[in-house]
Fold this protein.
Amino acid sequence: TQLLEQSPQFLSIQEGENLTVYCNSSSVFSSLQWYRQEPGEGPVLLVTVVTGGEVKKLKRLTFQFGDARKDSSLHITAAQPGDTGLYLCAGVDGGSQGNLIFGKGTKLSVKP
Amino acid sequence: DAGITQSPRYKITETGRQVTLMCHQTWSHSYMFWYRQDLGHGLRLIYYSAAADITDKGEVPDGYVVSRSKTENFPLTLESATRSQTSVYFCASSWTSPPILDTQYFGPGTRLTVL
């Protein structure tokens, strides 16, 4: 079974700081997705990365897929309180079902 | 309103009772999914459906039953609820399924407590 490990598990920072969260696996994934989940709501897709080494930017968020397609990172520049939430990475299960496997998430709190 | 909805949003039940969680989507998406989210485990797939009358097991199907008689509805039934099934349940839908990566749209969740 493929596993996705996310770190750190919790992160509390002040508004304006930069941060990076990580998503790592010992297995190769054909693609990875990042979701953000706010309290009391379902996850919402932020980005999909497909190619090894790929970098995608979404305003202050920068997503990178590792060259070997085993890891990914999310970097947030000048964090804002609105960035608070649970960040989840998800990869396609390379097994027979081909469904999404989710990491346990990084819970981010940005204090004003 | 268009989108994906779940009902009820909160449910408290007792061990041994049957509980059905409802999921409805208005996009006519082919694929629908049920996940449970628990502290320390993240989101885990329970069952999924590729189309009406086609369902398959996910990672943690034991104790759950699903059906899909209509494209837009995908109810999840706990036939005899156990305390270990206390969780937050999310329904999701998409046009296609990985590995042809597509966006999964999640409902707001149902928080189920089994006493």
Notes: Chain A has a mean pLDDT of 92. The CA atoms of residues 40 and 85 of chain A lie 11 Å apart. The interface with chain B takes residues 30-31, 33, 40-45, 48, 50, 88, 90, 92-93, 97-100, 102-105 of chain A (CB under 8 Å). The first strand of chain A starts at residue 5 and ends at 7.
